[in-house]
Design brief:
single chain, 173 residues, mainly alpha, binds fe (ii) ion
C-alpha cells in the first residue's frame, strides 16, 4: 500500500463527507480548501510530467492511462469547485470582503473555462490512435496551457483568500 503522501497519480486520499464539509468554523473550511489546493498542484505537476514523453512502443496503454488520469483530474477539480462554489466558502469570503465579490465571480467563471478545456482535451485525446499524430502535439500543448491557467487561477485565489482572511481577522480587533 502506498502512503497518503505517496499515493499514485490519479488516486487521492479519502475526502470528508458533505456533512463534515459544512464546517462549524471558518478555520476548518480554509484548511480543507488549502489541502485541496496542495493536492491540485501535485496533480498538475504529474500531468505535466506524464505528457512530456509519450510511450510510443505501448501507445494504446499509455493513452488509456492518460485518459484515466485526465478523467480523475476532472473529477478532482469538479469536487474542488463544488466546495468553493456551493460548500459555502466563496459565499463566506464574499460576506467577509464585499469589495472582492467581482474577483470571486471572475474566479467562478474560470471554473467553467477549465472544465470545458479539460473536457475538450479528453475528447481529442480519445480519438488519437498513433503516437505520431499531429493531434498529440496539440493535446500536449493544450495540457501545458491548461496547467498554467490553473496555476494562475489558484495563485489568484490564494491572494483573495488571504485578503479576505485578513479582513476577517481585522474585523475582530
Ligand atoms: Fe477556484
Ligand atoms: Fe481553488
Amino acid at each position: 500500500m502506498e502512503s497518503r503522501e505517496g499515493h499514485p497519480a490519479g488516486v487521492f486520499p479519502p475526502r470528508p463527507t458533505a456533512r463534515e464539509v459544512v464546517m462549524p468554523n471558518a478555520h476548518s473550511m480554509n484548511e480543507l480548501v488549502e489541502n485541496d489546493h496542495k493536492a491540485l498542484l501535485k496533480a498538475l505537476s504529474d500531468l505535466e510530467t506524464t505528457f512530456e514523453h509519450p510511450d510510443t512502443e505501448m501507445f494504446g496503454e499509455w493513452k488509456l492511462e492518460r485518459l484515466w488520469q485526465l478523467r480523475d483530474f476532472l473529477n478532482q477539480l469538479q469536487k474542488h469547485f463544488d466546495l468553493e462554489e456551493t460548500g459555502g466558502f466563496n459565499e463566506r469570503m464574499s460576506r467577509t470582503a464585499p469589495h472582492l465579490v467581482a474577483q470571486i465571480e471572475h474566479l467562478e467563471e474560470d471554473h467553467l473555462k477549465i472544465t470545458s478545456d479539460l473536457t475538450h482535451i479528453i475528447d481529442v485525446m480519445k480519438g488519437i490512435y498513433q503516437p505520431d499524430s499531429p493531434k498529440l502535439e496539440r493535446v500536449h500543448s493544450r495540457v501545458q496551457d491548461l496547467v498554467q491557467f490553473i496555476r494562475v487561477h489558484e495563485a489568484a485565489e490564494t491572494d483573495i483568500i488571504q485578503e479576505a482572511f485578513y479582513q476577517e481577522l481585522g474585523a475582530g480587533d
